[in-house]
TrEMBL record:
InterPro entries: Ribosomal_bL9/RNase_H1_N, RNase_H1_N, RNase_H1_N_sf, RNaseH-like_sf, RNaseH_sf. This is Ribonuclease H1 N-terminal domain-containing protein. It comes from Candidatus Wolfebacteria bacterium GW2011_GWE2_44_13. Residues 5-50 form the Ribonuclease H1 N-terminal domain. GO terms for molecular function: nucleic acid binding.
Length: 202
């Protein structure tokens, strides 16, 4: 049996906010709302604290995290895959690596509708490493194991993977090799501890 999870949501445009332990209820409330903010928590107390602090994705209810550059991707606003790159405080950094016209009002980059979430994670990883090299930062963090342990190392299968995704994976591998040769590291963390987390994970 899966452990119980609590979903906190806040949608200012319709005056909706609250906590539910039913993902389908949360999804129905927030789906397609441009200003929807929601996130899953292990305890009701954590969910209540997140809402109390203003339902900001960058606010961390939990432990203090390490200095570095963090990345994530998610689909929860209902318009496609968004990517996020931030510092340890949750400050958006994408404007340092891509043009402003490609960044939405939330400080994120929305991909075209055919892109998968894993592609988004891989692209976000690329931008995070590029930014780390640019800024002289030595640590990059993300919560996708497949990206950090496989795809960003060039370990990606041919079957069922779009050529564009494989090409991107090899480009990220080259960047990662350069980054690690300079003393950098790409590390896996829990989504609960990721300040770039888009809050769109079940």
């Amino acid at each position: 049996m899966k452990p119980k999870k609590y979903y906190a949501y806040n949608v200012a445009s319709i005056g909706a906010h609250g906590i539910t332990d039913d993902w389908d209820v949360c999804k129905e409330i927030v789906s397609g709302k441009h200003d929807a903010r929601y996130k899953g928590f292990k305890t009701r107390q954590e969910a209540e604290e997140w809402l109390r602090l203003g339902a900001h994705y960058e606010v961390k209810v939990k432990k203090e995290i390490e200095k570095g550059i963090y990345f994530d991707a998610g689909t929860g606003r209902g318009f496609g895959v968004e990517i996020s790159v931030t510092d340890e405080a949750g400050k958006d950094l994408l404007q340092k690596v891509i043009a402003k016209e490609f960044i939405n009002e939330h400080g994120k980059h929305l991909l075209s509708k055919e892109k998968t979430n894993n592609y988004g994670e891989l692209l976000a990883c690329k931008y995070a490493i590029e930014l780390a090299l640019q800024e002289g930062e030595l640590r990059v963090f993300g919560d996708s194991k497949i990206i950090i342990e496989y795809w960003s190392k060039g370990r990606i299968k041919v079957e069922g993977i779009a050529p564009e995704t494989r090409t991107l994976a090899f480009a990220v591998k080259k960047l990662r090799d350069e980054f690690e040769a300079a003393g950098g590291s790409v590390q896996h963390i829990s989504g609960d501890d990721n300040p770039a987390d888009l809050g769109f994970h079940r």
